[in-house]
Amino acid sequence: MTTLSVTTWSLEQTAPTDLRPAAVPEGDVRVVRSEVPSPEFSRFLYASVGGDIRWTDRLGWTYARWQEHLERPGVETWVAYDRGTPAGYVELEAQDEGVVEILYFGLLPAFRGRRIGGHLLSYGVARAWDLADRWPGVKPTTRVWLHTCSKDGEHAMDNYLRRGFRLFDTKVEDEPEVATPGPWPGAYSA
Questions:
Q1: Residue-wise pLDDT tens digits, 126-160
Q2: At 111, phi and psi to the nearest 5?
Q3: What is the pLDDT of residues 88-97, one digit of tens each?
Q4: How far apart are CA 41 and CA 62, in angstroms?
Q5: pTM of the shown model
Q6: Where are its TM segments located (predicted)?
């Protein structure tokens, strides 16, 4: 089996004032919380955004596993729409002691390079900072963190840094190389 050397960077913000919002893109771009847990919709977003950059860890999840994850207190999915069409998403997860992780963030390939990503990330980070306002029993946010890796889009790291995230850890590991799955087999060429 062929392996791929993957660098993973972990980044954080430790105060709401760390966020440096991007400009709102022109046109009819809206960000809306997906409030009804929907395994079908969440899997669509995951596979469509990550299919060309080898997001594979959730592809084998059952419907029940998706449902269980989405129904956990403090898990939120915020979706960017461009003229009514899903363009990308950010998934948040409340963790212990006021920590919120941005589990997934990205755009469908057709919407990349249109200034939607910076706006969506800004919006998602702001929602991470005020997440406890929507979830009774969840501690107020004291830290927002995420990780990105060398398999992610070429502008991912720059977007995170421009939004005010700071690097706190770097790891390099060999991973099995997998074919680019696409949102369905054959959707993207590797």
A1: 999 999 999 999 999 999 999 999 988 888 999 99
A2: -105, 0
A3: 999 999 999 9
A4: 14
A5: 0.94
A6: none
Q: Among residues 61, 83, 74, 64, which one has the least CA distance to residue 33?
A: 74
Q: Round to whole Å and give the CA distance between 76 and 101.
A: 11
Q: Please give the backbone phi and psi of residue 178, each rounded to the nearest 5 degrees, phi first.
A: -115, 155
Beta bridge partners of 99: 143
Q: How far is CA 15 from CA 78, 124, 144, in A?
A: 21, 15, 8
What are the start-end ranges of the H helices in the chain? 39-50, 63-70, 116-129, 156-162
Give the DSSP H/E element, type plus range, for residue 88.
Answer: strand 85-94
Q: What is the chain's alpha carbon radius of gyration, rounded to the nearest angstrom? A: 16
**DSSP conformational letter for 28:** S
| Sheet of strand 29-33, all strands in order from the earlier edge strand to the far edge | 29-33, 75-82, 85-94, 99-107, 143-149, 3-13, 166-176
d(CA 180, CA 18): 35
Q: How is residue 159 written in tokens? A: 């977007």
Measured CA to CA, the distance from residue 126 to residue 180 in angstroms comes to 32
Q: CA 19, CA 125: separation in Å to the nearest integer?
A: 7
